[in-house]
Specification:
Length: 432
């Protein structure tokens, strides 16, 4: 009877030794990365977006009509409010007829879209569940180059994958998913970000969400990008309040300066944004900026492209003045310029003044009411009675939406219209 007792004592001693060893090693294993993942990971969700795609039958072409199939895209998201508010990328849910949010515990919740913006590549979803684990967006103004960051997401459908790296750079210029816009303030990291990570959080070692992962360079290894939290927060606030991003108005029409343009125009600097036009009585006009000025800095940061100005104003509250540095001939001037929410009719007024085009509602459609002689619209061949069907890739429902798209196009420098005449539709890119 003594042998089993001896074995039990030996087993107990072994177990106690293993427990002591585990206790000693636990602090070594519980790194800051582990603690951050444990804190934030419950707020990270997988997103499955289903869309019905209508396509030509591969065997019979269009002879027997079309067939419909279900297409599914996978992405990631972050619960930012316990009431069921989820942030993700706009391209993850674009065209979706059904969106499922999958929680870490496996629950699947259907989501509604509260707002989305393709240029910001952000969307806000709502699920009918309260008391969810949430991690709010943090700040990105005080980031440190080289600090450790953690990306959590759903790459290739692999749920809650964690990768680590460092913050490689700030202010990277990256084209949007559609290619229609450029962001000049993306965060760059070498934390592995692959298809499916889009919409997931980029987190620092304090557990703060410093960015929303959104982009990779095709064919590149070890390079990922994220939308800075400061800009994402402003976009989320507006999507929750209005369902879309509201345009900001400075009254400036800018062109990015390169060495060739600087030489041709004899500009005082080879980088910056040239003021092609200042709309009268706009915030920039009242601040003192004039046609021909060269913008070289905003908010104390060098300005190397026209998108830099848009980015700077997108990271602060509307109406917040920023110090803009201008070269005018040999003089260096500084003006406090604010970007404001434009008046309701401003977009249509810009359409008239910049293009010579007046549009009015005609039943359920929008029709051209007047084309000014020798205007840009007249030179493009537009005529009274033509229908304005879409602007910047968006089908138009009313005059307010048209005005909204005109103001968005001022930043890009041109307005893309789809105009209908008779049985035909024409795509026109009109410089503003």
């Amino acid at each position: 009877m003594s042998r089993p007792a001896a074995l039990s004592a030996a087993a107990l001693a072994t177990a106690l030794a293993a427990a002591a060893l585990a206790a000693q090693s636990a602090p070594l294993r519980r790194t800051p990365v582990v603690e951050v993942v444990e804190r934030v990971s419950p707020s990270v969700v997988n997103i499955a977006a289903e869309a019905l795609v209508r396509e030509v039958d591969p065997f019979f072409g269009g002879l027997f009509g079309y067939r419909t199939r279900r297409a599914q895209s996978l992405g990631s998201g972050l619960i930012v409010d316990p009431a069921g508010i989820v942030v993700t990328n706009a391209h993850v849910i674009e065209g979706a007829s059904r969106i499922l949010v999958v929680l870490r515990d496996g629950r699947e919740l259907e989501a509604d879209v509260l707002g989305a913006d393709r240029d910001a590549d952000l969307a806000v979803l709502k699920v009918a569940q309260r008391g969810l684990p949430a991690t709010p967006l943090g700040r990105s103004a005080d980031l440190l180059m080289g600090e450790t960051v953690v990306a959590i997401g759903n790459p290739f459908g692999l749920s809650h994958t964690v990768t680590t790296g460092v913050l490689s750079a700030r202010g990277r210029t990256v084209p949007s998913e559609s290619g229609a816009a450029r962001f000049t303030d993306f965060l760059q990291t070498d934390a592995s970000i692959n298809p499916g990570n889009s919409g997931g959080p980029l987190v620092n070692l304090e557990g703060q969400v410093i960015g929303i992962n959104t982009a990779i360079i095709s064919g590149a290894s070890g390079i990922g990008f994220a939308i800075p939290a400061d800009r994402a927060q402003r976009a989320v606030d507006e999507l929750l309040r209005f369902g879309e991003l509201q345009p900001l108005w400075t009254g400036l029409r800018l062109e990015t300066v390169d060495a060739e343009l600087a030489r041709r125009e004899s500009l005082p600097a080879s980088r910056g944004a040239l003021v092609v036009r200042v709309f009268e009585d706009s915030p920039a006009w009242r601040a003192g900026v004039r046609d021909g000025d060269l913008l070289v800095a905003v908010g104390g940061q060098p300005l190397s492209a026209r998108e830099d100005l848009t980015t700077a104003f997108s990271s602060v509250a509307p109406g917040t003045p920023l110090l803009v540095e201008v070269r005018r001939f040999e003089a260096t001037l500084r003006f406090a310029v604010a970007a404001v929410r434009p008046p309701r009719e401003l977009g249509l007024a810009v359409l008239r003044s910049a293009l010579g085009l007046s549009v009015a509602a005609a039943g359920d459609a929008l029709a051209i009411e007047r084309v000014e002689p020798r205007s840009r619209a007249a030179r493009a061949g537009l005529a009274r009675g033509d229908l304005v069907l879409a602007a910047n890739g968006q089908r138009l429902r009313d005059l307010e939406q048209l005005g909204h798209e005109v103001l968005r196009a001022v930043d890009r420098g041109s307005l893309l219209l789809v105009v209908g005449r008779g049985r035909y539709a024409y795509n026109l890119n009109l410089p503003l």
